[in-house]
Design a protein that fits this description.
Elements lengths: L1 H19 L4 H10 L4 H25 L5 H23 L3 H26 L1
Helix pairs in contact: 1-3, 2-3
Length: 121
């Protein structure tokens, strides 16, 4: 029964991730934490989910002509380097500090999106 819930959760996350460009980790990590996974395990597992959703999303967005490959590759160069540092930092964080940090990032992202939506209107 749990596998059905996980697959349905993946469906919703796949839709939201491919629509928003946020990858889905912002949804996967809290769910995995709720299911009792340690922060490091939740983040690592989330990347498997995000990777596979991203590959599928790239194919769909490529077919629609929605990709600026040069810009994406330039950002990815820095992202690949940063991705090697992030797990080291996470490994030294307590579960409580990680949850606070992650919540803070989500709050700041929400505030930024609200401000951007007001200025665009």
């Amino acid at each position: 029964m749990e596998w059905i819930i996980l697959i349905l959760m993946g469906l919703v996350i796949g839709i939201l991730a491919s629509m928003s460009g946020l990858g889905g980790g912002f949804l996967v990590v809290p769910v995995l934490l709720y299911l009792g996974k340690k922060a490091q395990m939740a983040v690592g597992t989330s990347f498997v989910v995000v990777f596979l959703i991203a590959v599928s999303s790239v194919a769909a967005h490529y077919r629609l002509g929605n990709i600026d490959l040069k810009t994406g590759l330039m950002i990815a160069i820095g992202g690949i380097a940063g991705a090697q540092v992030g797990p080291i930092i996470l490994q030294s964080m307590s579960e409580q500090n990680f949850k606070r940090f992650f919540a803070g990032v989500l709050v700041l992202l929400a505030i930024w999106l609200v401000i951007q939506s007001r200025s665009a209107a």
